[in-house]
Amino acid sequence: MPKVSTEHLLEVIRSLTKAEKRNFRMYAERNNKDSALLFVQVYDFLDKYDKYDEKLLLKKITGIKKSQLSNIKAHLYKQLLASLRRIDRKTELDITIRDQLDYARILYNKGLYQASLSLLDKTKSIAWEHGYFSSALSALEFEKFIESQYITGSMYPKAKLITDQTAELMEKLALTHRLSNLSLSMYAYYLQHGHIKKGPILQEVSDQFTQALPNIDYRSMDFYQKLYFTQSHAWYNMMIQDFPNHFKHAKRWIDLFDEYPKKKQSETTLYIKGLHNVLSALFMNNATKKFINYYDQLIHFKKVAKLKTTINEKSQLTLYQTLHTIHKIYLTAEYSKNIKHLKPIENLINSNPYNWDTHRILVLKYKVACVYFGASKHDQAITLLNLIINKNYSNIRQDIQCYARILNLAAHFNLGNETLVNYQVRSVYRFLLKMDQQEKVLQEIFKFLRKTPNILPSQLKTEFRKLRAKLRPLSKDPAERRPFIYFDIISWLDSRINGTKIEIEVQKKVKR
After folding, report:
1. Local confidence band at 35 (pLDDT 50, 70, 90 cut-offs)
2. DSSP state, 199?
3. Cα 368 to chain center, whole Å?
4. C-beta separation of 504 from 495 below 8 A
């Protein structure tokens, strides 16, 4: 086995449950019959100490030389994965199928051709039935190899059957890969650009989507083809802010699992993500009642479904429960009442026990900052926004990076930090130019901010009303509404005009 990084080894050990640790020890001792094996001792050391200290390890385990350590860690990593594979083999069908293919190879190597072909045929049928077409194709390729090398007594009819099945599988796989590629590319565009409504990026995305979308009847597709088809439409419609159609395809996504109920067990993560997309679409459509229904469904998913969830599924559930808890606060506009929920969320973000990617962390930080801003806790909002502003996130969610800076300016403005606002305006404007984020809404906001140093306190409300009058029509323009998704500028202006908290103004809007 190639050398493994120490960090990857530590990640595996830290992820082990008590049952998995017990299974590993039984596996290691049963296969090696020596509880004092060096790799077991290394495992005990790494499991005991939070930080990796090579000098201390070599001091504690006297039987290991420094030159041996790299190979021992690689062997330990291999043994850990092998023991975990033994557990997952009972519940993960794709692992079982790969095992059967390996067994067929062993039988072939022993010269037991008929036994090998029989096993391959059974494995192929199971893989085909459950949609594991790549594995089914591997079984077919091996069958072809055996039939072409040895006389098995069924040459012609078997050869025709194999070639026909191969042609059918290749056609299925071609369509599946085309749709999965489209789904992935739409998701990649979304991660980079977020919501878009005009300009060359929109044209580029729309062209790629329409050109890559196959002309085929949805009803004739299998499970995975339907899944990738609905995912592609969900990402695309979310990007272009067509939220009703986003909901339509996200709903079709989870309805697909009702059509294929067994897939809730084998593809739990994808079902959870489908629920997340339904909730996101309902949130964007301000459909509060439906949102709360699906929110409760997500919260109680594990108990209702009675499924065995892995760490990966637990991670997804925790992530989306956290995200939509924040969305629920937005929809009800009860910011102050729900401040108590934010500290646990911040602790979760900071500790990141599930290794959430940079994109997830960025989104959560911004959304928590928005709740603090809504509750008029501007210092806490600024602290979180600075974590976004001062870190280089490269090309991830450029839209959120832009509006984090806008919200930061508004928070400082509310605190009366005019000097700091005047200093930051130029740097924020340069950032927006660099990111090519020049909507009319932003232009109007910057015109206002640039002249704030020269506005007398007695004139402020008048200027706020002027800005509101310019932004109000833009908030109803589909091509300009993106900024209002991230920051309710109209409600903020109303709060400045009426001398109230922004929370009060948003609640008025919710009631209307």
Report:
1. very low
2. S
3. 18
4. yes
- Tokens linked to 71: 């190979």
DSSP 389-448: HTS--TTS-HHHHHHHHHHHHHHHHHTT-HHHHHHHHHHHHHHHHHHT---HHHHHHHHH
Closest CA to 221 of 233, 209, 211: 233
Q: What is the pLDDT of residues 390-436, one digit of tens each?
A: 888 777 777 788 889 889 988 998 888 877 877 787 788 777 777 76
Say how many CA atoms lie within 13 Å of 331 toward its Cβ: 21
Question: Which residue has tokens 């199971």?
Answer: 126
* φ, ψ of residue 149 in degrees (nearest 5): -100, -25
- What span, in angstroms and rounded, lies between the C-alpha atoms of 509 and 512? 5
Radius of gyration in angstroms for the set of CA atoms belonging to the chain, rounded to a whole number: 29
Quick one: DSSP state of residue 480? Answer: T
Give the C-alpha separation, 119 to 169, whole Å.
19
Q: CA quadruple 93, 94, 99, 101: dihedral positive or negative?
A: positive
